[in-house]
Amino acid sequence: MKENLISILRNLEKKKNITILMAAVTGSHSFGLSSANSDIDVRFIYVHNDRRSYLSLSQPDEVIQLNEGFCDVEGWDLFKTSRLTLKSNPALFELFQSPIQLIVQPDYCRVMKGLIEECYSKKALVHHYYRMMTGNLQQLTKTSSSEKKVLKTWVQVYRSYLVLQYLILFRALPPLCVWELLDSVLIDKEMKSRMTRIFTAKQKEEFSKHESIKSLEFLEGKLPSIKNEITKLPIGKHMEQDLNQLIWSILKEGDV
Prior knowledge:
Layout lengths: L1 H15 L1 E9 L1 H4 L8 E9 L14 E6 L2 E7 H9 L3 H8 L3 E4 L1 H14 L2 H19 L6 H24 L7 H7 L4 H16 L8 H18 L9 H14 L3
Parallel strand pairs: 2-4
Antiparallel strand pairs: 1-2, 1-5, 3-4
């Protein structure tokens, strides 16, 4: 699979006259939840090879998208990526945390991973996953959803809860794989069994609307304490100067 994905990306480099700085598989594959029919989400960061385009009145494309059959591909330009990094963007965190790396420019990735690890706002990340959890909990109160939609919603609820607990407990960036999260976060045996059942059902595509009301009550009961913990988390560190230096070094090199 990786060879085919890398080939798609290398062809895209030639077609768009770009250099890919980093690319990885995200989504269900990186969460350890893919099924036989799961689409493959590929995200990447690139720089335009024509450096003069950054100094032109018509700015170069900041987003590149491609649908290649089974594969959904999207890339962000170096400048867009850097601006999103300043905001502690969760999608970038998940991109760099992905265990399925496709293309890695060593110097760029080393600096970016260091900035995300040291400077990202844990508070911003918790806000994001808190909204994800509460939004999906609200969806579960609706009875019109299909079995497939209900299963995916439960997966999002449980995954976001585990990520929240990890961030709050360890004050560190969590792994993406739900099985690693289950082993890392302390939860009661019954809840862990429910989560395992739902995650396994997602992998096997065993759709069912049935899930205990106790799960809803348990998670809704956790929301006040999670919300309270948000106020105690660090807001992150300034990284604009470091990102500017990184951009300048890449543009100066010409060939990455």
